[in-house]
Protein backbone atom coordinates (compact mmCIF):
# COMPACT_ATOMS: atom_id res chain seq x y z
CA UNK A 1 0.00 0.00 0.00
CA UNK A 2 1.11 3.58 -0.56
CA UNK A 3 0.97 5.83 2.49
CA UNK A 4 1.54 9.58 2.56
CA UNK A 5 2.09 11.65 5.68
CA UNK A 6 1.85 15.44 5.83
CA UNK A 7 4.18 16.95 8.40
CA UNK A 8 4.66 20.57 9.31
CA UNK A 9 7.72 22.42 10.50
CA UNK A 10 6.62 24.47 13.48
CA UNK A 11 8.15 27.03 15.73
CA UNK A 12 9.11 25.59 19.07
CA UNK A 13 6.54 27.41 21.22
CA UNK A 14 8.97 27.69 24.09
CA UNK A 15 10.98 29.99 21.79
CA UNK A 16 8.14 31.47 19.71
CA UNK A 17 8.51 35.05 18.48
CA UNK A 18 5.93 37.09 16.59
CA UNK A 19 6.97 40.05 14.45
CA UNK A 20 4.98 42.88 16.10
CA UNK A 21 4.74 44.83 12.82
CA UNK A 22 3.53 42.10 10.47
CA UNK A 23 1.92 39.74 12.99
CA UNK A 24 3.75 36.84 11.36
CA UNK A 25 5.68 34.14 13.12
CA UNK A 26 9.41 34.52 13.04
CA UNK A 27 10.38 31.14 11.59
CA UNK A 28 14.02 30.25 11.52
CA UNK A 29 15.91 27.03 11.57
CA UNK A 30 17.18 27.46 15.10
CA UNK A 31 13.76 27.36 16.73
CA UNK A 32 11.91 25.02 14.40
CA UNK A 33 10.95 21.42 15.05
CA UNK A 34 8.69 18.78 13.49
CA UNK A 35 5.14 19.37 14.71
CA UNK A 36 4.99 16.94 17.68
CA UNK A 37 1.48 15.66 16.80
CA UNK A 38 2.70 14.74 13.31
CA UNK A 39 4.96 12.11 14.85
CA UNK A 40 1.80 10.15 15.69
CA UNK A 41 0.65 10.38 12.06
CA UNK A 42 4.05 9.18 10.87
CA UNK A 43 4.11 6.34 13.41
CA UNK A 44 0.64 5.20 12.25
CA UNK A 45 1.82 5.07 8.62
CA UNK A 46 5.08 3.27 9.49
CA UNK A 47 3.24 0.71 11.63
CA UNK A 48 0.75 -0.05 8.84
CA UNK A 49 3.56 -0.31 6.30
CA UNK A 50 5.36 -2.73 8.61
CA UNK A 51 2.13 -4.76 8.83
CA UNK A 52 0.96 -4.86 5.22
CA UNK A 53 3.98 -3.73 3.20
CA UNK A 54 4.35 -0.72 0.93
CA UNK A 55 5.97 2.69 1.16
CA UNK A 56 5.68 5.78 3.33
CA UNK A 57 6.10 9.12 1.59
CA UNK A 58 6.37 12.29 3.66
CA UNK A 59 5.41 15.73 2.40
CA UNK A 60 5.83 19.18 3.85
CA UNK A 61 5.18 22.65 2.52
CA UNK A 62 7.52 25.22 3.94
CA UNK A 63 10.72 27.22 3.53
CA UNK A 64 13.95 25.48 2.44
CA UNK A 65 14.92 24.99 6.12
CA UNK A 66 11.95 22.61 6.47
CA UNK A 67 14.31 20.00 4.99
CA UNK A 68 15.41 19.01 8.45
CA UNK A 69 11.92 17.83 9.49
CA UNK A 70 11.96 15.57 6.44
CA UNK A 71 15.37 14.25 7.46
CA UNK A 72 13.93 13.48 10.87
CA UNK A 73 11.09 11.56 9.17
CA UNK A 74 13.71 9.52 7.27
CA UNK A 75 15.53 8.75 10.51
CA UNK A 76 12.24 7.31 11.82
CA UNK A 77 11.82 5.14 8.72
CA UNK A 78 10.13 7.14 5.93
CA UNK A 79 10.95 5.85 2.44
CA UNK A 80 10.89 9.09 0.44
CA UNK A 81 10.40 12.76 1.22
CA UNK A 82 9.11 15.82 -0.64
CA UNK A 83 9.39 19.52 0.13
CA UNK A 84 6.93 21.88 -1.55
CA UNK A 85 8.83 25.13 -1.42
CA UNK A 86 8.49 28.34 -3.39
CA UNK A 87 8.30 32.03 -2.53
CA UNK A 88 4.88 31.98 -4.18
CA UNK A 89 3.62 29.60 -1.44
CA UNK A 90 4.59 32.08 1.33
CA UNK A 91 1.96 33.75 3.52
CA UNK A 92 -0.58 31.01 2.86
CA UNK A 93 -3.58 30.65 5.15
CA UNK A 94 -5.18 27.26 5.72
CA UNK A 95 -7.15 27.26 2.44
CA UNK A 96 -4.10 28.08 0.29
CA UNK A 97 -1.96 25.61 2.28
CA UNK A 98 -4.48 22.79 1.74
CA UNK A 99 -4.81 23.66 -1.93
CA UNK A 100 -1.03 23.47 -2.40
CA UNK A 101 -0.68 20.24 -0.42
CA UNK A 102 -3.53 18.63 -2.39
CA UNK A 103 -1.88 19.68 -5.67
CA UNK A 104 1.45 18.21 -4.51
CA UNK A 105 -0.23 14.93 -3.50
CA UNK A 106 -1.94 14.69 -6.91
CA UNK A 107 1.43 15.25 -8.54
CA UNK A 108 2.98 12.40 -6.55
CA UNK A 109 0.38 9.90 -7.73
CA UNK A 110 -2.29 7.95 -5.96
CA UNK A 111 -2.06 6.98 -2.30
CA UNK A 112 -4.20 4.49 -0.39
CA UNK A 113 -4.02 6.35 2.92
CA UNK A 114 -3.04 9.90 3.77
CA UNK A 115 -2.23 10.86 7.34
CA UNK A 116 -2.11 14.26 9.02
CA UNK A 117 -1.50 15.18 12.62
CA UNK A 118 -4.52 16.40 14.56
CA UNK A 119 -3.37 20.01 14.60
CA UNK A 120 -0.24 22.11 14.49
CA UNK A 121 1.51 23.52 17.51
CA UNK A 122 1.76 27.06 16.15
CA UNK A 123 -1.51 27.79 14.29
CA UNK A 124 -3.56 24.80 15.53
CA UNK A 125 -6.64 25.24 13.37
CA UNK A 126 -6.96 21.46 12.70
CA UNK A 127 -8.35 22.42 9.30
CA UNK A 128 -5.67 21.13 6.95
CA UNK A 129 -6.50 17.41 7.11
CA UNK A 130 -10.24 17.71 6.35
CA UNK A 131 -9.57 20.42 3.73
CA UNK A 132 -7.00 18.30 1.89
CA UNK A 133 -9.42 15.33 1.94
CA UNK A 134 -12.20 17.52 0.51
CA UNK A 135 -9.91 18.83 -2.22
CA UNK A 136 -8.90 15.29 -3.15
CA UNK A 137 -12.55 14.16 -2.96
CA UNK A 138 -11.82 11.43 -0.43
CA UNK A 139 -13.44 10.53 2.90
CA UNK A 140 -11.71 11.47 6.14
CA UNK A 141 -11.92 10.79 9.85
CA UNK A 142 -10.39 13.15 12.41
CA UNK A 143 -8.85 12.28 15.76
CA UNK A 144 -8.25 8.54 15.27
CA UNK A 145 -7.44 6.70 18.50
CA UNK A 146 -7.27 3.27 16.87
CA UNK A 147 -6.70 2.16 13.28
CA UNK A 148 -6.93 -1.36 11.89
CA UNK A 149 -6.68 -2.82 8.43
CA UNK A 150 -8.89 -5.90 8.39
CA UNK A 151 -10.71 -5.90 5.05
CA UNK A 152 -9.02 -5.26 1.72
CA UNK A 153 -9.82 -1.83 0.35
CA UNK A 154 -11.19 -0.54 3.68
CA UNK A 155 -9.75 0.94 6.87
CA UNK A 156 -11.42 0.78 10.29
CA UNK A 157 -10.95 3.80 12.52
CA UNK A 158 -12.08 4.46 16.07
CA UNK A 159 -12.38 7.99 17.32
CA UNK A 160 -13.39 9.38 20.67
CA UNK A 161 -16.26 11.80 20.86
CA UNK A 162 -17.03 13.66 24.07
CA UNK A 163 -19.14 10.88 25.62
CA UNK A 164 -18.83 7.92 23.28
CA UNK A 165 -16.55 6.07 20.90
CA UNK A 166 -17.35 5.84 17.23
CA UNK A 167 -16.03 3.09 14.96
CA UNK A 168 -16.09 3.87 11.27
CA UNK A 169 -15.10 1.91 8.21
CA UNK A 170 -13.81 3.99 5.31
CA UNK A 171 -13.31 2.94 1.75
CA UNK A 172 -9.78 3.63 0.52
CA UNK A 173 -8.32 5.97 -0.60
CA UNK A 174 -8.98 8.01 2.54
CA UNK A 175 -7.43 10.51 4.93
CA UNK A 176 -7.02 10.17 8.69
CA UNK A 177 -5.94 12.75 11.24
CA UNK A 178 -4.39 11.07 14.24
CA UNK A 179 -4.96 11.73 17.94
CA UNK A 180 -2.05 11.90 20.34
CA UNK A 181 -3.27 8.80 22.21
CA UNK A 182 -3.20 6.64 19.04
CA UNK A 183 0.36 5.42 19.52
CA UNK A 184 3.84 6.12 20.87
CA UNK A 185 6.09 7.39 18.07
CA UNK A 186 9.23 5.31 17.63
CA UNK A 187 12.70 6.74 18.14
CA UNK A 188 14.94 7.18 15.10
CA UNK A 189 16.93 4.01 14.37
CA UNK A 190 20.71 3.95 13.93
CA UNK A 191 20.21 2.95 10.28
CA UNK A 192 17.72 5.80 9.84
CA UNK A 193 20.08 8.34 11.38
CA UNK A 194 22.80 7.22 8.94
CA UNK A 195 20.36 7.40 6.01
CA UNK A 196 18.95 10.85 6.78
CA UNK A 197 22.07 12.79 5.79
CA UNK A 198 22.22 11.15 2.36
CA UNK A 199 18.56 10.99 1.45
CA UNK A 200 17.42 12.94 -1.58
CA UNK A 201 14.88 15.58 -0.65
CA UNK A 202 12.69 16.05 -3.70
CA UNK A 203 11.68 19.69 -4.16
CA UNK A 204 8.40 20.79 -5.67
CA UNK A 205 7.92 24.38 -6.79
CA UNK A 206 4.76 26.04 -8.08
CA UNK A 207 6.00 25.36 -11.63
CA UNK A 208 6.05 21.62 -10.86
CA UNK A 209 2.47 21.60 -9.64
CA UNK A 210 -0.69 22.05 -11.60
CA UNK A 211 -1.81 25.07 -9.54
CA UNK A 212 -3.81 28.19 -10.22
CA UNK A 213 -1.44 31.05 -9.15
CA UNK A 214 -4.40 32.99 -7.74
CA UNK A 215 -5.06 30.18 -5.21
CA UNK A 216 -1.60 29.85 -3.64
CA UNK A 217 0.35 31.84 -1.04
CA UNK A 218 -0.78 35.24 0.17
CA UNK A 219 -2.70 35.94 -3.06
CA UNK A 220 -4.76 32.78 -2.62
CA UNK A 221 -5.50 33.42 1.07
CA UNK A 222 -8.91 34.90 1.85
CA UNK A 223 -7.98 35.41 5.53
CA UNK A 224 -5.43 37.82 7.01
CA UNK A 225 -3.90 38.19 10.47
CA UNK A 226 -4.78 41.81 11.27
CA UNK A 227 -3.11 42.03 14.62
CA UNK A 228 -1.32 39.83 17.13
CA UNK A 229 -1.41 40.82 20.77
CA UNK A 230 0.13 39.11 23.77
CA UNK A 231 -2.46 37.79 26.21
CA UNK A 232 -2.45 40.07 29.24
CA UNK A 233 -2.54 37.92 32.37
CA UNK A 234 -5.36 38.90 34.78
CA UNK A 235 -4.29 41.21 37.58
CA UNK A 236 -4.13 39.47 40.93
CA UNK A 237 -5.12 41.18 44.16
CA UNK A 238 -5.19 39.72 47.63
CA UNK A 239 -8.15 40.64 49.77
CA UNK A 240 -8.27 39.94 53.47
CA UNK A 241 -11.72 39.52 54.95
CA UNK A 242 -12.03 39.99 58.69
CA UNK A 243 -15.25 39.80 60.67
CA UNK A 244 -16.02 39.51 64.35
CA UNK A 245 -18.35 36.59 63.69
CA UNK A 246 -18.61 34.02 60.89
CA UNK A 247 -21.85 35.63 59.64
CA UNK A 248 -20.19 39.01 59.48
CA UNK A 249 -17.20 37.56 57.60
CA UNK A 250 -19.56 35.86 55.12
CA UNK A 251 -21.46 39.15 54.57
CA UNK A 252 -18.19 41.01 53.96
CA UNK A 253 -17.05 38.28 51.57
CA UNK A 254 -20.33 38.42 49.61
CA UNK A 255 -20.16 42.22 49.35
CA UNK A 256 -16.56 42.03 48.13
CA UNK A 257 -17.46 39.38 45.56
CA UNK A 258 -20.39 41.45 44.27
CA UNK A 259 -18.02 44.39 43.77
CA UNK A 260 -15.72 42.29 41.58
CA UNK A 261 -18.71 40.71 39.77
CA UNK A 262 -18.00 37.14 40.88
CA UNK A 263 -21.62 36.79 42.05
C1 LIG B 1 -5.81 33.80 9.11
C2 LIG B 1 -4.48 33.12 8.97
C3 LIG B 1 -3.44 33.76 8.31
C4 LIG B 1 -2.18 33.17 8.22
N1 LIG B 1 -1.15 33.85 7.63
C5 LIG B 1 0.07 33.29 7.60
C6 LIG B 1 1.18 33.98 7.04
O1 LIG B 1 1.04 35.09 6.56
N2 LIG B 1 2.40 33.35 7.03
C7 LIG B 1 2.55 32.11 7.56
O2 LIG B 1 3.66 31.59 7.52
N3 LIG B 1 1.52 31.44 8.09
C8 LIG B 1 0.29 32.01 8.14
N4 LIG B 1 -0.74 31.34 8.73
C9 LIG B 1 -0.51 30.02 9.23
C10 LIG B 1 -0.77 29.05 8.13
O3 LIG B 1 -2.00 29.24 7.54
C11 LIG B 1 -0.78 27.69 8.73
O4 LIG B 1 0.53 27.42 9.14
C12 LIG B 1 -1.18 26.60 7.74
O5 LIG B 1 -2.33 26.95 7.07
C13 LIG B 1 -1.45 25.32 8.44
O6 LIG B 1 -2.53 25.50 9.31
P1 LIG B 1 -2.39 24.99 10.78
O7 LIG B 1 -1.03 25.28 11.25
O8 LIG B 1 -3.55 25.51 11.56
O9 LIG B 1 -2.51 23.42 10.58
P2 LIG B 1 -3.51 22.38 11.22
O10 LIG B 1 -4.72 22.29 10.37
O11 LIG B 1 -3.70 22.61 12.68
O12 LIG B 1 -2.59 21.11 10.98
C14 LIG B 1 -3.12 19.80 10.88
C15 LIG B 1 -2.12 18.93 10.16
O13 LIG B 1 -2.02 19.31 8.80
C16 LIG B 1 -0.69 19.05 8.33
N5 LIG B 1 -0.06 20.31 7.91
C17 LIG B 1 -0.35 21.57 8.31
N6 LIG B 1 0.45 22.46 7.67
C18 LIG B 1 1.24 21.74 6.85
C19 LIG B 1 2.30 22.06 5.95
N7 LIG B 1 2.70 23.32 5.74
N8 LIG B 1 2.91 21.06 5.27
C20 LIG B 1 2.53 19.77 5.46
N9 LIG B 1 1.55 19.41 6.31
C21 LIG B 1 0.92 20.37 7.00
C22 LIG B 1 0.06 18.42 9.51
O14 LIG B 1 -0.08 17.03 9.44
C23 LIG B 1 -0.70 18.97 10.71
O15 LIG B 1 -0.58 18.19 11.86
C24 LIG B 1 -1.99 31.90 8.80
C25 LIG B 1 -3.05 31.25 9.43
C26 LIG B 1 -4.29 31.84 9.52
C27 LIG B 1 -5.42 31.10 10.21
From TrEMBL:
Which domain of life does the protein's organism represent?
A: Bacteria
- Residue ranges that the Swiss-Prot or TrEMBL entry lists as coiled coil: none
Extract the CDD domains matched here.
ETF_beta
Q: Which InterPro entries match?
A: ETF_a/b_N, ETF_b, ETF_beta_N, Rossmann-like_a/b/a_fold
Q: Which parts of the sequence belong to the Electron transfer flavoprotein alpha/beta-subunit N-terminal domain?
A: 22-213
GO terms for MF: electron transfer activity
**Protein name in UniProt:** Electron transfer flavoprotein small subunit
List the source organism: Dialister hominis
